[in-house]
Amino acid sequence: KAPTVEQLNAPTEKPPIAKKLPMENPYAKNNKRSVITPSSGSSVMNTFFPQKKKPFTAQQKSDPKVLDTAFQQTTFVPTPIRDVQDSNANKVKVTGIVTWKCVGVYNQLSRRPKEGRFFLVHLMDANQDSICIKAFEEECDKYVDKVIHGGIYTLYGMIAETSTKRTYDVKYPPTNPTVLKVTSDTVITKLKDDGSFPRPPILPTKLIDMSEMKKGDKVDIVAVICMIGPVYVPVQGKSMMRELQISDGTGFVKLTLFRDEARTADKVYNIGDIIAVSQLKVMPYRGDICLSHCGDPIIVNPTNIPEATAVAEWWKNHDKKIIGHNVRVS
Predict the structure, then answer these.
(1) Would the pTM of this model clear 0.90, i.e. be above it?
(2) Which of 181, 131, 129, 193 is nearest to 157 (CA)?
(3) Contacts of 137 (CB under 8 A, 6+ apart)
(4) Can you tell me the distance from the alpha carbon of 265 to that of 278, in angstroms, rounded to the nearest whole number?
(5) Over the stretch 288-309, which tens digit does the pLDDT of each residue have?
(6) What is the DSSP letter of 196?
(7) HEC profile of 34-89
């Protein structure tokens, strides 16, 4: 019987198409296959084959000896200074206290002579291992006033300086011969002093021995305050200044304080106080040796420095009305 027109125009239903499932290889070692769905992002197999995870125990901690540099960077674990080398200098992150600082000018002798500023610091970590860090030109100008002697810092993003390694303090060289150089990618962060880092030692120089020093040299001193001058502002300056007359029994020099130190000096210090301070800058003026305070803490009446006892004994027997001549430049 021939079909009618109504039967020809009726839509024909298609049988449902079976979904294809991934074939499993029974001979494969790992025959679990995950199918990731875009909606959930999870594995379908987790529904049928749930994995039992072992509970975390304290014995599963990683051995610190096998931590690589990349892991230390991502978890912000400082690299021990003793482990810093030229090969990993650009990946390490070091934390420590600045025990020595020097600022100067370098002259590069070549076809194109070059002159610029630089500063060097020694950084000592909690293990009392130290390393030299250098900064030149733009990096020097950026951090020279922020990185101070006795401050605690974290530094990363440096490179190894291989041109010369004779630029650190020859009297107290760092324990690690590697030299790190600050670059434009370097990040320096100042930390709070929680007492975990050993304080840099104060190695005082006798005032009479400063006659041989040059402008810009840095010294540590232990001396007694003999006179406190008034606050003044230089004609061509903007910051307040104040001069202290100090002596250690071998000679007299003037110590210049600036800004807040100068403003509050008459309330903080008294004549007869024994002070110990590091990294004072030698600044000869009209033939006299003068010292400038560069921001390091001034310790008043220290009890753990042997030279302080000797200076206190000298001041006790000294005629307070006699203020000797300043040490002169030889």
Answers:
(1) no
(2) 181
(3) 116, 117, 118
(4) 17
(5) 889 998 877 788 998 888 899 9
(6) -
(7) CCECCCCCCECHHHHCCCCCCCCCHHHCCCHHHCCHHHHHHHCCCCCHHHCCCCCC
